[in-house]
C-alpha cells in the first residue's frame, strides 16, 4: 500500500461506529421483482450481505465488461425507478451506450437497455462472481460513468480482506503467520477508518495502491484466510479512534514521523521507530546509478508534467541534501544546473528521481545519500544514490513485521511496536 498525498481524514470514533453496527446487525435484504425474457427463467431473488460491508471500486475506464458467476446468478436492472430481474447461468455482457447500460446474453442478443444501474448477484452458497477473468465474493454493482462503466464490488469486510492481504504482504510461510495477522488487522483498520471517504461517490475504497491492493478470490490462500479468521473484527485504536494504519515494505532500519514524509497533521502513533528486523529484505540496502543526461531527462519529464509546459534543463552541476528526518530520510534535495536550482521535498523526491533501470518505477525510498562522479574537466558524469528501505517509511514495516514473527513476536506486539501508544479492540 502506497499512501501518497492522500487527504487527511476526519477521525472516526469507535463508539459511534459500534452503536451503528449494533443497530445494523441484520442482513441487508435486496428483493427484486420478476420479469421474463426469452432464454432466461423468471424468478424472485433474495440476496444477503453481511455487515459491516465495504464498496470497492474495481474499474471505471472500460466501456464493455463480461460478467457471470460459478453457477447461476441474478441480474437486477434498474431503470427510471423500476426493477426488472432476470437470472442466467451463462456470461452476460454489459456495455455503456450513450451514458446508459445495455445487457446482452452470450449470443449477443439484447436483454435490456437504457438502464441506470445493474446488479449481479450470485445464487447459492460459495458462488463467486466472474468479471472477465477474475472472481469476486459479494455482489457487483455496475453503473455508467461518462462513456465508461463503473464496477463496484459490495462485499463483507472480512471477505474483502481475503483479497487484500495476499498482494499487500506477499507469499508467506506458516512460521510467519503472526506477521500476516498483523497485516490483516492493519488492513481492516484502514478499511474501517476510510468508509465513505469519497463522500457522494458510490464506493468507499479503490482497488489500487491509492487505498489497498485488492485482487479478489484469485489471490486468496489458506494461510491468509486463517490469519483473517483468527483476528476477525480486531482493529487498532488510539484514544477511541481508528488509527491511520499506514504500512510499507521495508523501513531500512527506522520508520519515520508522518510530518517528515508528507504534509500531514501530526499523529502521536506515527513516530520514528527503530527496526532492523527487515534486514533480510532485498531492499534493506540498494543502489541506483544514473548518467548525468539520464537524470536530467527524468527531471525534465517531471517538471514538464508538474508545470504543464515543456522543460529543458542545462547540465547538472551539483546535488545537495539539505536535512534528514529523524528516521534518516531526505527532507530537501537541491539540484543545481548551469542556469538554475530546483528544490524537491520529502516523499515527492522519489517520484522526481525514479529508477535508472526502469522509468516507470520510483526511487525505492528517501533514505539515501548521493555521490557525484566527474570527468577530467569537472563536469558531472554520474550520480549514485545509495539507500536503505522501500516505501514511504510511515507506520508498520512489513518486512520488519515478518522478521519479528520469525523471532516469535505475536501480532499484537508487532502492531503496538510500530504504532506507538495504540491498543487493539474488538470492533465486532
Shape: globular
Please state the structural category.
alpha+beta
Helix content: 10-25%
> Helix tally?
9
How many domains?
3
The radius of gyration over CA amounts to 25 Å
**Major beta-sheet overview:** 7 strands, mixed
Number of strands: 28
Q: In which order are the strands of the major sheet placed?
A: 6-5-10-13-14-3-15
Mean pLDDT: 90
**Fraction in beta strands:** 25-35%
Low-pLDDT parts are: 2-10, 23-45
Task: State the end-to-end distance.
Answer: 25 Å
Polypeptide structure, described:
- The chain is an alpha+beta fold.
- The protein contains 9 helices and 28 strands.
- The protein folds into 3 domains: 32-158, no CATH class; 163-282 and 392-426, no CATH class; 286-387, no CATH class.
- The protein has helices spanning 14-23, 157-162, 165-169, 177-193, 222-230, 292-307, 348-353, 398-406, 411-418; strands at 28-31, 46-49, 53-62, 64-69, 73-79, 82-88, 92-97, 100-104, 110-115, 117-122, 129-131, 134-136, 139-145, 148-156, 205-206, 234-238, 241-242, 247-248, 253-254, 274-275, 286-291, 316-321, 332-337, 341-345, 368-374, 380-387, 396-397, 423-426.
- The chain has a 7-stranded mixed sheet with strand order 6-5-10-13-14-3-15. A 6-stranded antiparallel sheet has the order 9-8-7-4-11-12, with no helix packed on it. A 3-stranded antiparallel sheet has the order 17-16-28.
- Strand 16 and strand 17 form a beta hairpin.
- The radius of gyration is 25 Å and the shape is globular.
